[in-house]
Every structure is written in structure tokens, then in C-alpha cells.
């Protein structure tokens, strides 16, 4: 007999995805209160999480705040630092001075006039983001996005986080168990019992017998134990669009304990991939993500080691950890009474740090759409699947944009990425439209887009995209555009001396904490 009321949710798998999902659900549905939704998380004590996702989006601030987390405790426990966007080196031509920023702050005057065309006509010698936003200048100067007196989760400039993914999972686990009433079962899942209608009825465990529930959340990583293995929902490979399938990751110390902490993720293009560089208070996390069809593991490691030496790493470099992945996403993400969140739902590549953001979005929609009875499950599943198919496709479009616009000719990898048959049809159509106008809210038109039109503008213009001549438009107001550029320059002049050094503020938070709201 299928239980009619949804009263117990079991999350299978811990790590960042499992515990973040548990925190979002438990903060909303209060398991400790009478009549609250019961939430159980079961994870194998022997399976270490992959730890993908050392970068977040600004959305993580609201996610943590709504879960009742202290930002001070988060900084102290997770080796956290501020992230104000991304810097891309050598993506356009491969030259040493080839760079651009994708900051988290919107362009000054965004949506009020055509800044892109005005920049192209009058200021193209200055990188677009540097002209329309103060945030790249904060990053270059090593400034933090808030002041000592700024309360928790508030910012002078928009920001997300860099963090230690392993410590983040443990931090969320402690918060869920101590503050939110999540029930924890450290055990192995050895089998699955199903109802006659195909729903999952219970999990067989090694030490705790059967674990029954009404809704199961698959956070088991790339193995996708429930949705992939039990239900056979296939992974739709995207390797024909985005080629990267391997990564070499390493943690390295700073040369000096007071070395600057970068407040942006730095992405430096290589012969067949790119290297991420993330600054935490105690170390740097660096990795080379690449296409195994275009470069060998040995050559990829040589490029990684050369990068590390060129950025100040001295002494012996530890052996990097090899990670392999199949870029893709599930054909559907919610089937019967099983929802996949995290790597079990899909993974494309680390570019633009979408992994943790997709966990946030998934957990939030599950919380918003939580069915009350079994007969609502199928309708909820249909809406969830449509939403996340759209979101995964938009992630792929946006990531592919970075490769399509590159002009690098030094390897087959970069040339192959521009082949028309590798470009998604929707992106190809948008690029055709954008030859004569900037990306707008009509192109990226959902309320909760993964990447807004402003992000497309930062990447397109950062990579040298130029509009073709067309008829003059009424909203092309040069005087208005220049006034917004002056505003951006004025904000830059005011913020640089007013904001503290990034490391200095992080050290202050770790020692003294932030003000509560």
C-alpha cells in the first residue's frame, strides 16, 4: 500500500549536495516541530565525497542565511573567502595580456541604454567590464566586497564564496544535526524495495534494517544509485558540445602567510582546456580541466606544473588528484518518488562554478514544490523536469559561448570548439540575433535564469564580440551611456580607498566575527 501523505523524506548521500539539500528542506519544514516533515540523511561512512565546487554564486548568501547559518561560523569552519566574479586569462588570443572579467555586479546603467554598442563605438580600447563596473578594479586591487562594519550576508559589492568543499559538507552536517533536526544514519545502502506501482518503498541498509520513506532524494554523486542505477534514467552526454572530461586537482600553500587572497576565480586557458585558481585563507586550490581526446594526462600535468611555477609555487609540488567525468545531465531528474540533486543529476564542467548553484536551485524548487500527497508527485515531477532540462541546456549554452568566441588557433581543441556542428542550435540562433543587438531580457527571459543577459554581455564583449552596423536605435543615447560610465568610474574611485584588503577582512572575521543583522 503506497503511503498517501508525504511525511518522510530520505536523502541518500552526504557531501555538499546532500547536506545542503537537507539544510534547505529542514529550514523550511522544521522537523523538530510537531507535524513537521521528517528528514533523514543516510550516507556511507566509507565513501568520501568528490568535493567538486570550491566556488559559489552570490545566491549562496541567501541560501545559508535562510538555513540559519552564521556567516562568521561559515568563514571559520570552511576556510572560506570572498568571490567577486571570474577573471579569464588567455581565452581570446592566447597572448599574455589577454584577459577579461565576469564580475558579479551588474554593469552601471544596465538595461537603461545600450552600453555594449556605445562601448564598441567609443571606448573599445578599454575592456568592457573595466569600463562599466567597479568590481574588476576591486579584484585587481585585492579589495574585499564589504567593510568590517557591514553585517553578516550584506555586501557593499555583490559577492559569493570560495570554500573548502570537504569542510563545507561537514559544516552543513553539524548544522543540520545540531540545529535543524535532521536524522542521520551512517550506513551502507545494500538494496531497494519497491511498491507494486514502481515507487521506492524502502532502502535496505547494512546495519539499520529497512529505511522507509515517501520521497527519496538521490545525492549519491556520479553513480546515481537511485535515479540512474535503480530506475535506469540515462545520462545524456554533452561531450559533442563541451569536450572536457578530465581534471587534475592540487592544493598548494602560499609562499608567505600574508600573501594576497584573490577575490575572483582565475581561469587561464591552456592548449586543450583551462586551469582554475581559487584562493582560500590557508591555501590555493588549483586544477587543470581538459579534454582527454586532445591532450594526454602527462602533458596536462606538465602544463599544470608549469602554471604553478609561473604563479609563485616553489619547492616540491604534490602529485595532483585525477578526476574523470562524463559531461552530461539526466534525461529527467524526478521519476516517481525519486529526485536527483547534485552530481547524480548531472555535471558539465567546473567553468563558471555552476555545480553548487544547481544544487541550490534544485533544493529550493523541491522545497517550494514539495508535494503533500502521493497523487501530486507526478505533476511536481513534470514541472521539475521541464525546469531543470531548461536550466541544464542554458548552462551548456553559456559555457559553450566561452569557447565559440575564442580566436585561439594554437591547437585542434580550440578550433574544434568552434565547429558549427558542436554549437547548440539555440546558442547559434542567439549569436545570429546578437550580431546586430545586445543580449536582452527577451533572450534570457525566465524569472530565475541560471545566467542573466548581463553575464552574456560580460563574456561576449570580454572576448571581443563586435556588433555589425545596423540602423540607429532610439535607446542609443550616447550622453546617457557616458553618464553611467562616469558613475562606474566615480564608484571605483570611492570604493578603492574605502574597502579593506581582502585578506585583512577575512582575518578579522576569523578572529572577531561579523556584526549580526
Please give a quick description of this structure.
The protein is an alpha+beta fold. The protein has 16 helices and 21 strands.
Structural notes for this entry:
The protein has 517 residues and is α+β, with helices and mostly antiparallel strands. Helix content is 36%, strand content 18%. The protein has helices at 15-29, 59-66, 71-78, 115-122, 128-132, 135-140, 165-179, 225-230, 297-310, 354-368, 377-404, 412-416, 425-433, 453-462, 478-498, 502-512; strands at residues 8-12, 38-43, 81-83, 85-89, 99-103, 160-162, 183-186, 189-194, 200-205, 210-212, 215-218, 235-237, 246-252, 265-270, 273-279, 284-290, 321-324, 328-330, 334-335, 338-340, 346-347. The strands form 5 sheets. The protein has a 7-stranded mixed beta sheet with strand order 5-4-14-15-16-13-17. Strands 7-2-1-11-20-19 form a 6-stranded mixed beta sheet. A 3-stranded antiparallel beta sheet has the order 8-9-10, with no helix packed on it. Helix 1 packs parallel to helix 10 (354-368). The longest helix is centred in the last third of the chain and has 28 residues, at 377-404. The N and C termini lie far apart (49 Å). The mean pLDDT is 95.
* Estimated helix fraction: 25-40%
Count of discrete alpha- or pi-helical segments spanning 4 or more residues: 16
Give the total of beta strands.
21
Structural class: alpha+beta
Q: List low-pLDDT spans.
A: none
Shape: globular
Q: On the 0-100 scale, what is the average pLDDT?
A: 95
Q: In what order do the strands lie side by side in the largest sheet?
A: 5-4-14-15-16-13-17
For the CA atoms, what is the radius of gyration?
23 Å
Tell me about the largest β-sheet: 7 strands, mixed
State the distance separating the first and last CA atoms. Answer: 49 Å
